[in-house]
Each structure stands twice: as structure tokens, then as C-alpha cells.
């Protein structure tokens, strides 16, 4: 009791770089990461005594582990999401294994693609928020650029202008990725619809932290008595566009993102595969498309330079499928494997960009297309690749 009271009393003091407030509200230190772990002790004790584990024991152990996985920071230790770590470790290991033999390359790249797709559908179905895809996208970009600098450029065949072009492409991709994450366009409460407002200074865990700069306002709509047909129609529209989660009246084409936990103006989708780990809406849709365009241009140009360096005697179009003696030297094999990995990523994002451009040409969002498919109120062409709702389209 004395220890807990001291922790409570000392919480108002400034945190040092190695201290933090844990998930139970107590003051803790990085050096005590293996101390006072009641959840882990209980799980190990039940395992040693051959007793069945509690249903939530594993989740509590993982929650404690995630809470104590931190790095020192100026105003207190910052928490590190565990989903960030696997790409940083597994991607270089898998690529180096795949570079040992072409059969290993086929096996590893296929397995990685299947696992990433499975994790995407699993996360999307569970409505989960994860930094795995953001970490994978950024680390893949920087790791490919690092290998390009250290493995391809020293081999010759890449002049300063080509190196500058790849560097500018990587920089523009990162810049527009940062701009895209600034905000998709949140639905703000309108004073005319507000009867009272309750302010939460700390957003819930399932709400985007960028929403209202970290503070979410829950708005209660006033029950004004309205008469006449216009009043009845207005009440009907408000009831249909009312979001019970965010407590706001959504404008036309706005939607509630079940992953981000907020309402977005002209919501398109919540992007996980693209690497932004954010909603795509009215304010960042154009920047999202530009991020994809700059990445694809940089990736395709970089792949061509890598293939010209690793398979100098082959044509670029055929070198990806036939490059003799490339596995005789590990450096060339690693470059060739990274080119194949980049092709897989580029193919996936190229498909995403193609779908986005088709939707834009018909002035329809991904969310509206899915709703129309569910309600079967659409005109579908090319096996569902082209979807025209006929509501907002102004022609190509």
C-alpha cells in the first residue's frame, strides 16, 4: 500500500527519460521491465501446476509486454508498438535466404506474400489497428534504397543523374506519405446541430489520435420541435445521417470508418496495404494518389537499373525471368531477389492505383462502391472492375 501511494503521489512530478505511466496508472521505470509481472507469474504458475489457463491470461500477458516495450524519450519513455518490429527483423532475413537459390527465392517470396495477405484480411475482419503494414512499407522502401546504394551503385553502370533521380523519387514518396497522414478530413460537429457537448481530453483507444488534435468531442443533437413537411424531411435526413458512435450528423458522402473510429468527409477507405495506416477521405485523397504514383515511378525505374546491373547482358524485360549465372555471386543474387520483391510490391500497389483511378473517373468512392455492390444497385462492367453507381458520375 505504501508503494502504491508513493507512486500515486509522485505522478505529478516530471518524468525522466526512462520513466513512464503504465496502463494501470502507476509510475514505472524501464529498468523494472521484468519486475512485478503478476500476469506472467500467474500464467507460469498455472502452467507449472498443469492447471488450465484463464481465457484472458494470454491477452493480459501481451498487454503487459506491449506496455513495457518502450524506448527512452525526453519527456518520458515512449511506447513501441510490437507490430512495428517483425518487418525490421524478418524482411532482411527472408531476402538473404531467398538469395541463396532460385528455388528458395520462389518459396520465400510466395510465403511472404501469402502471410502478408492473410494478416491483412485477418486485421481487416477484426477491425484492428496495426502498424505492421506502415512499418513494412517504410522499411521496404528504405531498405531497398540502402541496398541500391551499397550493392548496385558500387558495381558501376549507374551514373550520378540516375542516382539523383532515384533519391528524389524516394524523397517525394516519403514527403507525400507524411502529407497524406496529416488528416483525411474529419466531420466536425456543427453548432446548429448541438444541444450539449461533452469533451474527452484523451481519445479512446479505437479513435484516430489525430482527430481534433487528440481530443474528441461527443455531440448530442437537440430535439427541436419542427412542424410541417420540411421539418419532417429534415428530421428524416438527420436520422439517416446520424452517427451513433461519433454523435454527429454526417454530410452527404461522409462515412464512419470502423477501423479509424471517426467520421470522414467523402470517405473512400481505410488504407492498410498502401502503408499510410490512415483513412483516405476528402482532404488527403489526392495526396494518397500522388504517393502511389511517385512510389510506382521510383520503384519501376529502380527495378530497371538493378536488372541492368545484375544482368548486364540481358534485356530488361527478359532479365526478370531469365538471368543466367546471377546466383553465382551472392551480391548479384541479392540484387536480383530484391528486384523480384519490389516487383511483387509494385504489382500490388499498381492494382490499387488502377482501381482508384477507375473509381475517380466515375466519381465514386470505394465505400460507395462496396455499399452499392451489397445492395445490388449498380452497373458493373469488366467482372466488377468498373462500378458505376450513376449518382455522382459526370462522365469520364
From TrEMBL:
It holds the Pfam family DHHC. Its EC number is 2.3.1.225. GO terms for molecular function: protein-cysteine S-palmitoyltransferase activity. Residues 238-369 form the Palmitoyltransferase DHHC domain. Its main location: Golgi. GO terms for biological process: protein targeting to membrane. InterPro entries: Palmitoyltrfase_DHHC, PFA4/ZDH16/20/ERF2-like. It is found in: Golgi apparatus, trans-Golgi network membrane. It catalyses: L-cysteinyl-[protein] + hexadecanoyl-CoA = S-hexadecanoyl-L-cysteinyl-[protein] + CoA. The chain crosses the membrane at residues 93-119, 131-149, 161-180, 288-310, 330-355. It comes from the Eukaryota. GO terms for cellular component: endoplasmic reticulum; Golgi apparatus. Keywords: Acyltransferase, Golgi apparatus, Lipoprotein, Membrane, Palmitate, Transferase, Transmembrane, Transmembrane helix. It is a multi-pass membrane protein. Belongs to the DHHC palmitoyltransferase family. PANTHER family: PALMITOYLTRANSFERASE ZDHHC23, ZINC FINGER DHHC DOMAIN CONTAINING PROTEIN. The DHHC domain is required for palmitoyltransferase activity. This is Palmitoyltransferase.
Amino acid at each position: 500500500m505504501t508503494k502504491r501511494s508513493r507512486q500515486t503521489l509522485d505522478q505529478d512530478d516530471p518524468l525522466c527519460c526512462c520513466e513512464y505511466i503504465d496502463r494501470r496508472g502507476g509510475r514505472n521505470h524501464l529498468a523494472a521491465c521484468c519486475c512485478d509481472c503478476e500476469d506472467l507469474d500467474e500464467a507460469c504458475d498455472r502452467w507449472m501446476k498443469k492447471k488450465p489457463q484463464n481465457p484472458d491470461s494470454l491477452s493480459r500477458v501481451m498487454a503487459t509486454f506491449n506496455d513495457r516495450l518502450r524506448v527512452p524519450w525526453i519527456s518520458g519513455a515512449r511506447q513501441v508498438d510490437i507490430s512495428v518490429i517483425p518487418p525490421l527483423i524478418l524482411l532482411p532475413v527472408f531476402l538473404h535466404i531467398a538469395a541463396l537459390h532460385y528455388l528458395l527465392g520462389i518459396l520465400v517470396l510466395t510465403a511472404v506474400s501469402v502471410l502478408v495477405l492473410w494478416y491483412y484480411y485477418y486485421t481487416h475482419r477484426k477491425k484492428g489497428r496495426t502498424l505492421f503494414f506502415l512499418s513494412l512499407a517504410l522499411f521496404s522502401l528504405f531498405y531497398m534504397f540502402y541496398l541500391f546504394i551499397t550493392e548496385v551503385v558500387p558495381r558501376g553502370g549507374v551514373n550520378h543523374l540516375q542516382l539523383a533521380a532515384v533519391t528524389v523519387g524516394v524523397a517525394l514518396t516519403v514527403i507525400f506519405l507524411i502529407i497524406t497522414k496529416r488528416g483525411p478530413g474529419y466531420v466536425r460537429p456543427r453548432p446548429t446541430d448541438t444541444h450539449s457537448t461533452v469533451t474527452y481530453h484523451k481519445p479512446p483507444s479505437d479513435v484516430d489520435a489525430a482527430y481534433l488534435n487528440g481530443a474528441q468531442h461527443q455531440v448530442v443533437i437537440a430535439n427541436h420541435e419542427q412542424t410541417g413537411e420540411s421539418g419532417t424531411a429534415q428530421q428524416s435526413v438527420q436520422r439517416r445521417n446520424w452517427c451513433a458512435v461519433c454523435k454527429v450528423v454526417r454530410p452527404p458522402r461522409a462515412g464512419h470508418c470502423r477501423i479509424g473510429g471517426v467520421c470522414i468527409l467523402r470517405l473512400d477507405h481505410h488504407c492498410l496495404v498502401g502503408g499510410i495506416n490512415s483513412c483516405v477521405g476528402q482532404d488527403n485523397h489526392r495526396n494518397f494518389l500522388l504517393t502511389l504514383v511517385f512510389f510506382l515511378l521510383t520503384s519501376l525505374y529502380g527495378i530497371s537499373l538493378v536488372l541492368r546491373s545484375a544482368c548486364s547482358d540481358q534485356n530488361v524485360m527478359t532479365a526478370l525471368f531469365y538471368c543466367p549465372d546471377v546466383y553465382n555471386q551472392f551480391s548479384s543474387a541479392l540484387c536480383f531477389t530484391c528486384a523480384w520483391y519490389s516487383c511483387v510490391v509494385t504489382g500490388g500497389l499498381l492494382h490499387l492505383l488502377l482501381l482508384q483511378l477507375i473509381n475517380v473517373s466515375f466519381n465514386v468512392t470505394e465505400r460507395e462502391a462496396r455499399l452499392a455492390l451489397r445492395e445490388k444497385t449498380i452497373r458493373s462492367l469488366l467482372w466488377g472492375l468498373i462500378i458505376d453507381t450513376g449518382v455522382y458520375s459526370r462522365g469520364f
